[in-house]
Structure formats: C-alpha cells, structure tokens
Amino acid sequence: MSLTVGQDAPDFDVVASDGTRVSLQELRGKKNVVLYFYPKDFTPTCTKETCGFRDMVGTLNGGDVLVVGVSTDDDETHRRFAAEYQLTFPLIADTKKTLAKAYGAIGGLRSLLGITQRVTFVIGKDGKIANVTAAESSADKHIAEVKATLTRLA
Hints:
This protein is an alpha/beta fold. It has helices at residues 24-27, 44-57, 75-84, 98-102, 108-113, 139-153, and strands spanning 13-15, 21-23, 32-37, 65-71, 91-93, 119-123, 129-134. It is built from six helices and seven strands; from the N terminus they run ββαβαβαβααββα.
C-alpha cells in the first residue's frame, strides 16, 4: 500500500514503550502528528534523525505537534534508546510490523531483514496525510521536510 498526500491516515491505537497510549483518533482536531518509521535504535542515521526530531519538537507549532517514532525494536531497546538520548516523545515497538504494514513502511530488502524502511508521515489535525518523506539515508531531509510541512500547517 502506498499512502499519498491528502489521504486519510490509517488509524492506530498503540501503547508506547514508556507505557503511554497513542491514538490517532484521539489526536484528531488537537495535534498534528509526525509519525516516523526508522530501521533500528542506536544506528547512526536513525539516532541523528531521532535527535533531530527531539530537538525541534518543543518549537513546532506552539506545541501542538506529537512526534511518534516506530521501529521493530522491542520495548526494552526503545526504553534504553529514549533514556540515552533524553527523548521526549513516544517510541512504538512494532515487533509484528502491524503499523509498518498499514503505512506501507515495510518491504523489499528491509522486510527480509525484519526492519522498517525510513519513511516519515506528517498527519494534519484533520487526520489527513500532509506530507510523506521517504529518504533511506538522509535524516536531514526528513527533518527539513517535517519543519516545512508543519510551518505550512500552522
């Protein structure tokens, strides 16, 4: 499944590694959501991307943005990653790849390796996809496109 700008984002209701519940339905009308899929905790590009989102999260749209990171790593690995890099947003352990499949973030070689592709979705308060960034090796591109999209949505 290939999701595009303007489509309704697939709904999700998950529990993050820190125990918080994240429901897209409950966020509608309240927050823009940056839902980013990444291959692995503690790898150079994934760490750069995650820390980039961490550093910008407080300044985006006056705080009406929730960043949510998703990988196939388990909850314990996510908790260690979040603690080491002082992350202020939830990480989802998508070990069964349910969310990744719903968003088309799994496939090709990465699927054979059991990890997600690097793809970021900005979901507007209306529940529609406002931007999709798919750049496997460029954390900077994901961060820049998210900033531009959220500025446009402001």
